[in-house]
């Protein structure tokens, strides 16, 4: 059993209420932080923990906090990014639904460390039920004296509000989120200045993912060094992985970073293997934007070492043979899934969600979608495959925000690893929509535990 | 005024005192002079009340927030959750993105289309139902999923039977 820091009490009845949450040791970190620590000590503790942003980019949270400008007489803000829209990712929704107080507790400690007196939790608009849950929890916390004026008699004031978005993937990008929070279209800003200097309303702002903020709670309770003992190398602590696709037991799992990929997929403690006794064909390890990997490269790196669920191990081999941990949105594809169709589906998503600000992304995603659509439906040409690679290269790195890269990587990686499947769609147009290409050689060496999945 | 196809509903709207009180509560969350931040939450409140955001409603919101109407239009047209034309009383928003797709979202959408007898974006003759495919709803482990506003209740692990059940439940609810 791996250690659980965030989901330890997930099955306790009533853990969504302040009363039960307190009984299980909730809000200890607020008392410790506000009464015994200075803001600088909290930032230092988070730096020591090695916590890296759980939203996808993996930037060290403590360092981000350390960058915050602190000019005299200017308000500072902590904004929680709960826009969670990356296909494959649903961990934040889970955390907020069942343990809303974990996020609120982390927000209080974080706001205190950053010197913020008003903080916002920005959720995607579709999470209306979670907004209600959080608002109720905030009211409970306020009634108990953890929010509002003079918190716990320390003289520190904090108001916490929940803001709904309007259903736009782009608002997960931090500057687009800030634009949206200001009541505008979610067009990402040109950086610099970074939000740490000029963020919400032009004031210094830190934007953190829901899970990153919740992880501050165990870091303050047990100390950053204790947190850093979990995990492997620079991937410290635990991570929520939301597993979906053709798995026996899809759901949200908290893992210690450094778990082997094989154990994560096949052990009964986690995903329990592939559904319906099928064979795993491919994996998207960290949300739709990270490169897709065939089965064999997912379990073993190009050097033949066992691959681990950690930032470093998943990206071992770069984009040639590796991928990224990303946001922890894990998608498993069995032998019946068509990679071309899936790539087209993802590209349609990026085309739909492109904010339209930068031409390479706005036009490029549309062209890739059209070309992939015709390949999938048997109208493609052999030259289309290189055309896709060409377009994806022209998007990557040429846009204000990373949505362009996120749209380019899945296409480039699908062609890199599954080129024969794309070619098969060109050479077998009549079968392209009726039959699947199948496993081919992607799944060798077959994992030994395959029989037990049946 | 924004041009809206397929509808003649440009009727003027008035916001009730209760709704205005809700607007005021939202505006109080932001610093002085930053009331524009309330735009997205207020549009959600308007849509929950009217079923969609009509051009006259958007103009009223602009007036309430002391901003230009275009500032409301550009936001309402950017974010996909805001409905720019009337929909059925129950709008099924079915996730069609990757992880849901591989567990059968396409088939469920076909089934809903046949069952309701209307194409994506159209409303059933009784005015009760419409449906559309939407992008990822962050429920990838429980697919296929659909949501129904304005509370955005989720219906997970959809099957043909559960869709049948849902439709008959909603019909019964509407007739009571």
The count of DSSP E runs of length 2 or more, i.e. the number of strands of chain A, is 13
* Biggest sheet character of chain B: 4 strands, mixed
Q: State the low-pLDDT regions of chain B, or none.
A: none
Query: Based on DSSP secondary structure assignment, what is the total number of beta strands of chain B?
Result: 4
Tell the overall outline of chain B.
globular
SS-based class of chain A: alpha/beta
Please give the CATH class of the largest domain in chain A: Alpha Beta
Distance separating the two termini of chain B: 37 Å
User: Would you tell me the overall average pLDDT of chain B?
Assistant: 91
Helix content of chain B: 40-55%
Which CATH architecture of the largest domain in chain A would you pick?
3-Layer(aba) Sandwich
User: How many distinct folded domains of chain A?
Assistant: 3
**Structural class, from helix and strand content of chain B?**
alpha+beta
Largest sheet of chain A: 5 strands, mixed
- Tally of individual helices of chain B: 7
Beta-strand percent range of chain B: 5-15%
CATH topology of the largest domain in chain A: Rossmann fold
Helix coverage percent of residues of chain A?
A: 40-55%
Radius of gyration of chain B: 18 Å
Oligomer: heterodimer
Strand content of chain A: 5-15%
């Amino acid at each position: 059993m791996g250690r659980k820091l965030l989901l330890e009490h997930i099955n306790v009845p009533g853990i969504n209420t302040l009363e039960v949450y307190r009984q299980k040791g909730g809000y200890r970190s607020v008392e410790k932080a506000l009464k015994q620590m200075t803001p600088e000590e909290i930032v230092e503790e988070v730096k020591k923990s090695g916590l890296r942003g759980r939203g996808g980019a993996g930037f060290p949270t403590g360092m981000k906090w350390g960058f915050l400008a602190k000019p005299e007489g200017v308000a500072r803000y902590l904004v929680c990014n709960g826009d969670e829209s990356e296909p494959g990712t649903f961990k934040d929704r889970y955390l907020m639904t069942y343990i809303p107080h974990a996020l609120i507790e982390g927000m209080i400690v974080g706001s205190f460390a950053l010197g913020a007196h008003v903080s916002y939790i920005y959720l995607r608009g579709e999470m209306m039920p979670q907004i209600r849950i959080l608002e109720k929890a905030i009211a409970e916390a306020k009634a108990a004296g953890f929010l509002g004026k003079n918190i716990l008699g320390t003289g520190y004031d904090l108001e916490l509000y929940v803001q709904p978005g309007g259903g736009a993937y782009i608002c997960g990008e931090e500057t687009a989120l800030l634009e949206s929070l200001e009541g505008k279209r979610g067009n990402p800003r040109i950086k610099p200045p970074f939000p740490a200097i000029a963020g919400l309303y032009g004031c210094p702002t830190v934007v953190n993912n829901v899970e990153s903020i919740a992880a501050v709670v165990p870091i303050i309770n047990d100390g950053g060094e204790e947190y850093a003992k979990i995990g492997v190398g620079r991937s410290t602590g635990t991570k929520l992985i939301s597993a979906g696709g053709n798995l026996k037991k899809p759901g949200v799992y908290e893992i210690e970073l450094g778990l082997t990929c094989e154990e994560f997929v096949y052990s009964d403690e986690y995903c329990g293997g592939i559904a319906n006794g099928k064979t795993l064909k491919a994996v998207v390890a960290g949300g739709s934007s990270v490169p897709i990997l065939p089965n064999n490269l997912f379990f073993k790196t190009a050097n033949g070492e066992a691959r681990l669920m950690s930032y470093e191990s998943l990206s071992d081999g770069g984009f040639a043979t590796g991928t990224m941990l990303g946001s922890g949105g894990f998608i498993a594809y069995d032998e019946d899934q068509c990679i071309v169709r899936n790539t087209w589906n993802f590209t349609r998503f990026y085309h739909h969600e492109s904010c339209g600000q930068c031409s390479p992304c706005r036009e490029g995603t549309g062209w890739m979608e059209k070309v992939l659509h015709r390949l999938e439906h048997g109208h493609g040409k052999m030259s289309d495959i290189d055309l896709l690679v060409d377009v994806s290269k022209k998007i990557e790195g040429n846009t204000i925000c990373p949505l362009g890269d996120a749209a380019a990587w899945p296409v480039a990686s699908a062609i890199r690893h599954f080129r024969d499947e794309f070619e098969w769609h060109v050479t077998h147009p009549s079968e392209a929509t009726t039959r699947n290409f199948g496993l081919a050689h992607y799944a060798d060496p077959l994992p030994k535990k395959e029989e037990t999945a049946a | 005024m924004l041009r809206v196809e397929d509808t003649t509903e440009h009727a003027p709207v008035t916001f009730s005192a209760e709704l205005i009180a809700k607007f005021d509560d939202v505006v109080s969350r932001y610093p002085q002079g930053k009331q524009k931040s309330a735009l997205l939450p207020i549009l959600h409140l308007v849509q929950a009340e009217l079923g969609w955001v009509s051009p006259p409603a958007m103009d009223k919101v602009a007036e309430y927030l002391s901003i230009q109407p275009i500032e409301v239009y550009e936001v309402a047209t950017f974010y996909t959750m805001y409905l720019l034309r009337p929909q059925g009383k129950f709008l099924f928003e079915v996730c069609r993105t990757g992880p849901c797709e591989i567990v059968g979202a396409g088939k469920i959408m076909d089934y809903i289309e046949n069952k309701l007898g209307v194409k994506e974006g159209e409303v059933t003759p009784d005015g009760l139902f419409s449906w559309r495919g939407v992008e990822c709803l962050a429920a990838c482990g429980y697919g296929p999923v659909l949501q129904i506003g304005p509370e955005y209740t989720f219906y997970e692990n959809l099957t043909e039977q559960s869709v049948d059940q849902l439709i008959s439940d909603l019909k019964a609810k509407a007739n009571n």
